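Translate sequence into structure tokens.
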Amino acid sequence: MWVGSRISITESYFIMFMKFVYYACLAVVILMAMVFCVSVLFILENS
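Result follows.
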């Protein structure tokens, strides 16, 4: 929380970048989990 509206442009860009990185990591984790589940199901089907 900043006092007043004295937030610099670099700080706001940094916050946007950190949010983007956070959501990108979240998407990668979800994608990896989906791929893992699909591969496990595939292995179980073929065994």
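Note: DSSP finds one helix and no strands in the chain.
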